[in-house]
Amino acid sequence: MAKGLTAPFDPSLNIEGDNAFSKRGSIWRDRDVKIGKTIQSHNVAICKGSHIADGVSIENSIIGRNCQILGGIVKDSILHDNVTVNLGCDINRSIIWSNNNILKDTHLGSGTIILPHTQLSESTNISENIGFTVFTSAGEPLVLPHESDDSDDEDQDDVPIGTLNLSDSEISEIGSDSDADSDTPSTRRRRRSSASGFSDAPSTNQEFYVEAEDSLARAFLENHSVDNATIELKTLRMTTDVTFHEVREAIISALLNVYLTTPTKAPKLFKKWGGLLHRFEEDLEAEVDSVMIMQRFFANRLRENAQSAAERNKFVLGLQGMYNADVFTEKTIFKWFGDERSKGVGEKGVEGMLSLRNAAQKLVTWLEEADEDSDEEEESDDE
Question: What's the domain range around 272?
């Protein structure tokens, strides 16, 4: 799992935070790292404040900040911050999330994922896994049931289509995307390159996008739970060393590809999988970044597709669909609309970005008027 993805290490390793790695032998180490004189090591990165005791064997692994490896063996594994591994432990091809104390004589077999604050008893023995097994904070294997497709259709504050001045033929064109006709490797690569930055991304990012697309396609097709999909993307993000931005790109690209090819499925899909996107949006700026990703996605399509008017309409209706499904809030859309980047400032394809923003003017105006009406009703109720 970690082998081949985490080694050989390089000082440009993108581990978040203020790091200053230096190499001694086969170990990349940050500041304030203490390493015993008798450890056995090969291809290891150890982050700030961690301590590796005498006698530890550690190979092809990444150790996070403020970890204590007091004994045992760690091989082909990733340990996040504030993890303690006690005497006699054997950690093999596993991922241990932050704030865990692995008690003595614990064996973690290949494919084990330990969530934060997990309580495993002493001498726990987790056997080898064919895929991944996730253990909860109670120390029990996480059962990830499929969610039912049957969900109550809630009343939505839908934006009236009439306010957008779209003809029936323009609306019907949304499902006519040529990618729906085939699913060959070349069409999959073309869809990936449609999202912002995908075609220009470093090879490591391309690896992430390919794997993320496959993971999300399975999740959509087999109706996985959002929790299950979140774990898969977090694990993939960690092993390919990308940021939340790239994860948001992958999710939005997957949602938009479904919207463009089978628009009738989009409302329910947006409603459910918007929750997955929210798991990777840490603040309002990240939410605005999600709208920017969608805008860049369609700006790329504008450059590739001569039917620019149709592409602008698809963008606006897609934005409306995201709003109706609570993927994007009014506050997010307003902030995006006022952002200079939405006008193309500092972006590739300034003309396309600006034309998409202008096409969304009627939607934004409608939202502003609806917001004002809501405020007036509240004031009337208060009186």
Answer: 161-382
